[in-house]
Amino acid sequence: MPESILAPALVVAAHPDDGDFGAAGYALQQAARGRDVFFLVCTNGAKGTSDRTMTRERLVPLRRQEQREACRRMGARDVFFLDNEDGELVYDRRFLEQLVRCIRTVRPETVLTHDPTDIIMRDSFINHPDHRTTGTASLDAVYPTARDHLNFPEHLAEGLEPHKVREVLLWGTNQPNFDVDITAEVDRKIEALTAHVSQFGSRDDFISFVREGWRSDDGRYLERFRRIELRF
Description:
It contains eight helices and nine strands. By secondary structure, the protein is α/β, with parallel strands linked by helices. It has one domain: Rossmann fold (3-Layer(aba) Sandwich).
């Protein structure tokens, strides 16, 4: 992987489109700065439809294709897929190893993922169990697991050295402490989301709904994160 002047960022999402909802504006800004932004999707998206004519055999490759297109629209460097079963994601050693392997491969300065802290979001949304599992395992992968050479020592034989992430940004949080102004990027964020045709099609009501979801009281559009700065 060619070296970039800026250390990479890694977006870790449970399902296709989660990372776009949570951090597309941030990804667009960072890519415009010349920073390599990578996406990691932890499940196969096999249950992401209300269309009763859709089969999983069609849906899984379709959602992968849609995520690749969304990442292209965001200017992301690449996207990786773990293909764990949608709706049945389990935090076990295998899943932790997959996350640590990706962190040690990409070597990001910043990891963005789901906030696993709360089950109920703003009294209007139940945080999906795959989101909570992804967020918890990602935090554990960042600290302490990816840092310590005694964790998954087989990685060393493959040339994957331990790595220290310096910043974590959690989306979907009840405790935001860090705002990113995406007013200039909001239309492109929506464009990335509409790549997920199997989920949203060309619905104008969806576009209006999500646009208002990011609009602040002062008229700006914000992505709000819980920021964790790892200083040691």
